[in-house]
Amino acid sequence: MTVTGPRSGRSVLVTDAGRPSALAVIRSLGRAGWRVVAATSDRVSPALHSRYTTARVRYPKPHHDPAGTVEAVLCAARRHHVDLVVPVTDDVILPLAGARRRFQGVATLAIADDAALAAAADKLATIRLARAQGIAVPRTLAVDELGLEPAVVAAGHLGWPVVVKPRRSYTYVAGTRPQRRWVGYAFDEAELRHRLAAAGDGALLQEHHPGTGVGVGVLADHGRPLAAFQHRRLREFPLTGGASCSRVSESVDPALLGAATTLLGALEWTGLAMVEFRVGHGEPVLMEINGRIWGALPLAVTSGMDFPARLAALHLEGASPQAGEPDVDYRVGVCTSDLDGERAWLAAVLRGVPLRPPFEMPPRREALGAAVGLLHRGFPIDGFDRHDPVPGALEVMRVVAGVAGRRLRVSSPPG
User: Fold this and answer.
1) Cβ contacts of 63 within 8 Å, gap of 6 or more
2) Which of 63, 69, 184, 347 is the least buried, fewest Cβ under 10 Å from its Cβ?
3) Domain count within the chain
4) What pLDDT band is residue 282 in, cutting at 50, 70 and 90?
5) Of the given ranges (30-39, 211-220, 252-261, 334-343), which has the lowest mean pLDDT?
6) CA–CA dist 322, 2 (Å, integer)
7) Which residues contact 28 (CB under 8 A, 6 or more apart)?
8) At 151, which CATH number?
9) What domain range is 169 assigned to?
């Protein structure tokens, strides 16, 4: 697909401007000549001060007032004559998706259709879809379907620790407040019962798969892949597995790309998605489909895969009708790092809090090497851009202030 600049006067609204992934979108489209409206619910968001930001919008905290978020984004889209709204997090995507009809004739929403969005958000539905397509997945039990006691008994056959996952990490029903649930580990039956008591409805039990997280980012049009990018996680936080703090671009693995495009094809997905796998110990296994702009998007853009510009072109210009292989032309071996995540990872490793097997604490020398890497000019950090320096400087100040604040609270005697 050929990516072209916007027609004269086009405007985009990007939500979650406090996130490096949103800043990457703002910079990409700003460089292409778009008028960019940066929207956020945070008091301090570095992207508000980007040279590519032409207008700024505040909306209520979406997890407290999702209806207010929708109203604020809709009013801003009208006021600024926005052509395209690019929501970045689930907190904003789901309320906006529920209000699609209100945006008709106002602005295009860069969100997959409701059926695809729901299927990607449902981890059990994703597991079953993958199995039907012959894609390897971890052994998984649905607690609601088995019943509590049979599930606890069956969990022992998965091997300890057992991964306790919500069926949906984020749920939203119009007129209610959103709910977010987190992944955890149970190392024995007593801990499993405790976690299940707190997990609520729809908990899944899954065998733990060691290995390295690999993400395949895809831009698709009704399931047809247009462009793809692959990254490997170098460090994650929490140390037992979580969001990537540091990652590297690598050549697309044909087998992983095939699995990712098979899943997105079955969903007839339109837009961006990142399909996550665990690799390194036996056959790669599917972890999840991340149906939104993912945290490592800045790495893709830094490596030369300009997903934001392609996403905008897809939604407003349509995709090229020609069939063919997806574009995978980008630089490999490029590393980027999330500053806040790296700070948390470094602090955890340097503190040296023991981890329970099979997890192992990285050696402190690795943390020292990572710290040197952060200071090295050749190791990009999300948010840093010499052509747009203010957001990066503000991000450093925010992280330093956060560290200082935590130290102050820890060291202050009780009043």
Assistant:
1) 91, 177, 178, 180
2) 347
3) 3
4) confident
5) 334-343
6) 11
7) 301, 306, 307, 308, 309
8) 3.30.1490.20
9) 139-207
402, part of any domain: no
Q: Are residues 339 and 328 in the same domain?
A: yes
H/E stretch holding 180 reads strand 179-180
Computed from CA positions of residues 70, 218, 249, 170, in that sequence, does the dihedral angle turn out positive or negative? positive
**Phi, psi (5° rounding) for residue 80?**
-100, 10
Residue type, 290: N
Contact of 121 with 168, CB cutoff 8 Å = yes
CB 42 within 8 A of CB 18: yes
Residues 11-63: tens digit of each pLDDT? 999 999 999 999 999 999 999 999 999 999 998 899 999 999 999 999 999 99
> What CATH number should be reported for the domain holding residue 235?
3.30.470.20
Do 380 and 287 belong to one domain? yes
212 class by beta-carbon count within 10 Å (0-12 exposed, 13-18 middle, 19+ buried):
middle
Residue 134 lies in a domain: no
Q: Which helix (H) or strand (E) holds 206?
A: strand 203-207
Give domain status of residue 173, yes or no: yes
- Per the CB < 8 A criterion, the answer to whether 383 and 342 are in contact is no
Alpha helix stretches (DSSP H) within 331-388: 339-351, 364-375
pTM: 0.92
Contact predicate 85/103, CB 8 Å: yes
- Of 291, 284, 292, 138, which Cα lies nearest the Cα of 212? 284
Burial class of residue 279 in the structure, from the number of CB atoms within 10 Å of its CB (0-12 exposed, 13-18 middle, 19+ buried): middle
